[in-house]
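Pasting two entries for a bug report.
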Amino acid sequence: MLRLAILGVGWAGERHARAVRELGDDVEVACLVDSDEARLEQMGRDLGVGTLYADCRDALDDPTVDAVSICLPHALHAPVAVDAAQAGKHILCEKPLAMSVAEGPRSGALLRLVDQGQPRGGLG
């Protein structure tokens, strides 16, 4: 069973969480993360998810979480993906991965680490 954290429960995050419920017994939503606590609590009730975090770091530190679905504002995709890779999590990221060419090298290093199966390494 793959346990997935949904990072961001806005439009995309809600749809990801609902889609995971349709996948059957192989994947489950382990937790939801959002800085809007009222929205987070409402989505937790609506989706039947009891573990709620206001900070992505808490989900990344949770040893029961295997993977993350990054549904955050675009500017947060690259830094959170890097943090998730360094935490050893599998990553599903809404587009775009990077916001600028300047972020490209860091995103490229992330992709190389993931491709090599070494997400716990450092990023150059």
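Entry 2 (this is the one that rendered wrong in the viewer):
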Amino acid sequence: MTADQLRALLSLPHELAAVEAKTSGSLQTVEYVAKLARACIAMANQRNGGTILIGVTDQGETGRLEVVGVPPEDLSSWSPDNLMDKINRYARPPVQLTLDRIDIDGHMVLAISVQEFTDIPVICTTDHNGERNNAVLRRGAVYVRSSTKIQSVEPDDLTMRELMDLATEKRFRHLLRLLGRVGITIKDASDVTEEASRKLETSTPHKTWAAIQQRGWWSLGLTPVDGSLTIPLQDLETWVRAAVVQAAGGWYPCLAPVILCQRLPDAISWCVDAGPTKEAWIATVHGVVLGRVALVNDWWDESILVPPPEGWTPKSRFPIPSSIVQVGHLVEFLANCASSSVYDSVERVKVRAEFHGLSGRALETNDPAYLATTWALLGHGSVPIADVPFEADVARSEVISSHRSIAVRASKVVVEQFGWDASDPTLEAMLAR
């Protein structure tokens, strides 16, 4: 981690699930190391790992991060080798991590970058009770990052299922590598997704493709994880048109009857570049559906029907509930695709819903239904952080029956970056509008 990256984190109005702040301590102190090991195990057991900042505190209810630094008497105990040795006395398989020393305005901060587990989840190997005889570590426990509070906890049923899905995905990739060594090649979900993504870009007019990515946009995707799915090329258009969601006078995605599809050798694609509506989609014979959809509110300057709100500028706001409603309808479209009989041989799917272009925005609502109750919680602060991906590897039946809950999870990933700990019922209510 660099000093600039650390400063960007410190400027956030809250702590992140992938970042934990800890006050200074010595690696010679058993109690401190045990608590640090718990945090490292939890970071290793989440997708993409995370970072632990030593010499940084969070400011109570505000959650803002403040540098206090690591004093010389503690700093002398910190080295990469000593850290690895101390932490992995409590963890199996060993946690993979790196240690960086960063000077912030004369204060030394230690950044521990924890890698996602390689093969199987990391398990605690040793019991440790704290000074008040409370269980800091429990032998055999699997620690994860809480989905409701920034801390390391033992998983609930939903988090455990996500952890097992991640482990299963890694074992499957390992099997594919072994088969490849003996000359057997099988395309996995990532292969067909990457292939579809390349075709989507090349089949979309450059002007439209560039416009979508110029401001904020959603990246949507549905990919079958298992089975060798093949949909006849002549059936693709019927399949996706039947899945389109019509709501609030619009089409999600924008595939109205007047929109023509382009037929490729093994896929169909379509795009729209009309005023604030800018989209590009592809559906392949392997059952992959990918879309790039611009945030409508970022393009008010091209609307001929509705003038931009007063003070509006592109890429300055993430409006709710309109942005959440938009992704909710698009996830419903993906669920409709998965519910079709052409997907009957598929048991598991990957659903992706990631927002790009979050940095520098303020979370905002001008909806009277939420203004009175949420404005004080949302605030105006800009968000100087990178985009946060969301991908769910779930049973096909879950996508069909619970697509709204998947949209809620994708929305929470975004709004939490603004420091708003939105409840599921609140987001559910927005999606139901």
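Dev reply: Rendering is fixed now. As a check, the viewer should reflect this: The two ends are 42 Å apart (CA to CA).
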